[in-house]
Design goal:
It is built from 2 helices and 10 strands; from the N terminus they run E-E-H-H-E-E-E-E-E-E-E-E. Strands 5, 6, 8, 9 and 10 form a 5-stranded antiparallel sheet that branches. Strand 3 and strand 4 form a beta hairpin.
């Protein structure tokens, strides 16, 4: 169908104005193109999903203390929380660092007769990842 302007695929709405055919796009498809919510309810659940756990890769004695190194599979963590336990103490938080950091020196782990065990987790908003693997070392 063609009119005197040369456009094809045009139709008239009841008021007499020309309207373009939208090629079957629905509001949901349009929303997906621009990464906005589509109303299915799944977006809310995905945004509350726990972040991925980091992985401890090394604990190295350094300057009479312990240096921890890790990798992350969640590149948008707000922070990392490190926990430590000893033979007489349960896990307790000993440090918190920004999400862009991948190592920490625990200057309070100084007893060479003690074995210190660590784990950490990513914090994103108010949600924590599962804990990482555990690693142990002595200064």
């Amino acid at each position: 169908m063609s009119d005197k302007t040369g456009y094809t695929g045009l139709s008239r709405d009841p008021s007499g104005h020309k309207a373009r055919w939208w090629f079957g796009f629905t509001a949901c498809a349009f929303a997906l193109l621009f990464s906005t919510a589509c109303g299915s309810g799944d977006d809310h659940e995905a945004s509350n999903a726990a972040p991925a756990a980091p992985e401890l890769t090394a604990i190295t004695p350094m300057a009479g203390a312990l240096h921890l190194k890790w990798t992350t599979h969640q590149h948008d963590c707000d922070s990392f929380e490190g926990e430590r336990k000893t033979s007489t103490q349960a896990f307790a938080a000993v440090f918190s660092v920004p999400g862009s950091v991948d190592n920490e020196m625990d200057a309070t782990a100084t007893d060479p007769a003690e074995t210190y065990t660590y784990r950490l987790r990513c914090k994103k908003g108010s949600t924590f990842s599962p804990y990482s693997n555990e690693m142990s070392g002595s200064p």
